[in-house]
Amino acid sequence: xxxxxxxxxxxxxxxxxxxxxxxxxxxxxxxxxxxxxxxxxxxxxxxxxxxxxxxxxxxxxxxxxxxxxxxxxxxxxxxxxxxxxxxxxxxxxxxxxxxxxxxxxxxxxxxxxxxxxxxxxxxxxxxxxxxxxxxxxxxxxxxxxxxxxxxxxxxxxxxxxxxxxxxxxxxxxxxxxxxxxxxxxxxxxxxxxxxxx
Amino acid sequence: xxxxxxxxxxxxxxxxxxxxxxxxxxxxxxxxxxxxxxxxxxxxxxxxxxxxxxxxxxxxxxxxxxxxxxxxxxxxxxxxxxxxxxxxxxxxxxxxxxxxxxxxxxxxxxxxxxxxxxxxxxxxxxxxxxxxxxxxxxxxxxxx
Amino acid sequence: xxxxxxxxxxxxxxxxxxxxxxxxxxxxxxxxxxxxxxxxxxxxxxxxxxxxxxxxxxxxxxxxxxxxxxxxxxxxxxxxxxxxxxxxxxxxxxxxxxxxxxxxxxxxxxxxxxxxxxxxxxxxxxxxxxxxxxxxxxxxxx
Lengths: 197, 144, 142
Hints:
heterotrimer, A: 197 residues, mainly alpha, Four Helix Bundle (Hemerythrin (Met), subunit A), 9 helices, extended, C: 142 residues, 6 helices, 77% helix, 0% strand
């Protein structure tokens, strides 16, 4: 039978390559509808990758937000805009060179990074992490450490995030909210004017 | 999409389960992965699915746009209000320990209330954004 | 062999950097504004992958406490993955979708104002308007 540990190792290797190929097809396709669906697939694969990296909270959020609401919003915009992409009309060599230089600089920076999964790396052995993991049970008393950090230890960040999400709704309402169908009187007045003219 | 029989029946069967899963994720955010953000988006997904299959007008009869706008503000107010109540009861802003008798029960009470506020806000915001796009689309070219 | 073992040690970071450069390339090169926003979404998602890969500990488990008793000797030896990047990335995902929503609303308004969402045509329309305005202001001065 298949050993679950082997399956997990296979997922660790296969998922990033699937992600890479999905991103490459998004670059090359001209059909925006295909690109929108592929973006949803990308988010779902990313959620699976987060699960193999032991991050279930982030996986649920990425799956619900990226593959759910994000794809729906892009498809709603494609209704207005149309699904054809005419492609860039200038020389593609210079951006490619810029990207290769930037990517190489970032790849060179990974030489200094601690290796993957090292329990002694500075991120794991810092005082803050140890305090969150060991003291969360007696100070707050709930099993999910991520919720206790999110809601209690870092409550100000979450307040700012709720405010940002609210402001996104206000922004969308300001941009697109005028003259909605609920404004029926204005609609009737407009129709009467069109009938007269 | 009302004419598609399979889509309509499956949607009607599956919507209660989506809502129940959303409430489960909200209330069990302390014991298993979950919390306010995930639950808000899942509950919003249920309403969006209903609007996609049966039409935006019918979905707006279930929950009108003005109620969504009020709910979005209520969530953020709930969060800020908990902080101010903690201030009034003698602690710092957003110090939940002073809300109840012992420290851990105060923290748990505070966490439950603010997760509820976040869930309400995120659900209302996602619905506002979707319905604004959908209503403008209806107005432009009579789609759906 | 050194570089291969180095890549194997860090391949999540390398994958994140490849995805980042693909996202950046789409943002620079795409003529269509919606394609640019998709590139931005890929860019943001790859940065999240980088952070979450930093937090993983080999042999660790998801950051949910097995039991709340801190005196239990079993719980002292369990290795948990770092919960702090998870919290920061939760915020980043939600803020990312908020940015995407406002960007898409702006694209709808741009389509209404210019009639197209191709970047070169919009720049052409803007340049022609500027030329017309400069002509008119020169005529006023004369």
